[in-house]
């Protein structure tokens, strides 16, 4: 599969360069992605020429984060259509690349149904292909707009909870422009607080084992001049105990109909800590992350990742000594428990903020109303 990737080094890419883009060189359309596994050390782009290459990029977390997975999935269908591959096969492979973030299947299905509708009309796969691309582009733009509105609603909620500002926000994983058509979800709220002069500190959980916090959120915070501090996930408890956290803000990979929230593993312990310390625990996610077909938390499939992600440090330049090619931090052959996500029950979530507004307290009825509002708008 490696020959389907061309890699280009792009250190110091200007801020605002999209993390995913469609290009049409003479050899045929391609999808260009910023490889998030190489950040913050290097800015390297991957050029995907077919869906299997994109599936590999999704599974290796080169492209990741719920909203971006949706956008990537939609462009992946468009790529298969534009290059004349079997679109149904590509859609199936993309949709199944990772199980937890519902946005992936939302994105794939949107592009696929646009393609199928055009195919039914024209009977010609070549003429139908642009419909898939148009759907992917539309989803990309909608996500950017949703991001801006989540930032507004999220900051309004923070200000309501703590009038006067000076917010000290703890976040987990990575939820900024690296995962979105815009400025992201939870990170976009922190950014809005910073721009309004009301962010005192962004506490960034390192987010073991793949360090999306330390590597990616810190990268985004530094590029935007936020006052931020990275901590090990284990240090969060003492930070709460010291009274240093005013709110927890996280994103989500799937929100069940009852308001249960699947997000990066380590989110649930933060919710428990937040409840004990009377700190608001706020989830920021677009309506596309709410899955009315998943009734509750127990019905959410949590992705299990390879154990070597835990038993090795994945530095690419580390000696190739373990199964994952990283530096072992446990004896070879050690088994590891490595769920990529955990599920927080709705009663521990203070509010879910979407582009359509916030729901608080979190109830199935409140969420259903937000989804209905989104369908009307
Ligand atoms: O495994 P990842 O890095 O794809 O997990 C991402 C997360 O858990 C994010 O917090 C979530 O997708 C929300 S992104 C706005």
Sheet with the most strands: spatial strand order = 7-6-5-8-11-16-17
| Computed structural class | alpha/beta
Question: If you average the pLDDT, what whole number results?
Answer: 94
**Order of helices and strands, N to C?**
EEEEHHHHHEHEHEHEEEHEEHEEEEEH
The CA-CA distance between the termini, in Å, is 42 Å
What portion of the residues fall into strands of 2 or more residues?
15-25%
**How many β strands by DSSP?**
17
Poorly predicted parts: none
Major sheet: 7 strands, mixed
Can you describe what's shown?
Helix content is 39%, strand content 18%. It is built from eleven helices and 17 strands. The model has no long low-confidence stretch (mean pLDDT 94). Bound molecules: 5-S-methyl-1-O-phosphono-5-thio-D-ribulose (MRU). 5-S-methyl-1-O-phosphono-5-thio-D-ribulose is lined by residues 61, 64-67, 101, 173, 175, 179, 184-185, 212, 251-253, 263-264, 340. It holds the Pfam family IF-2B.
